[in-house]
Amino acid sequence: MIKIRLKRCGKKQHKNETCSIYSAIVYFLKSGTQFTKTFHGIFLQKFI
After folding, report:
1. Domain range spanning residue 9?
2. Sign of the CA dihedral 29, 33, 35, 39?
3. How many domains does the chain have?
4. Is the dihedral of CA 36, 43, 41, 10 positive or negative?
5. Percent of the chain with pLDDT over 70
């Protein structure tokens, strides 16, 4: 939702907003959700 709104307004996402998204992703993964194939590829590219 944040990225769509920022694209529409022509703004870039700030680093602190990106970090909060990553923390939300980590929370959902710890709670037992599964990776999708696309997200798994992106995650591996970013963190390895």
Report:
1. 2-47
2. negative
3. 1
4. positive
5. 48
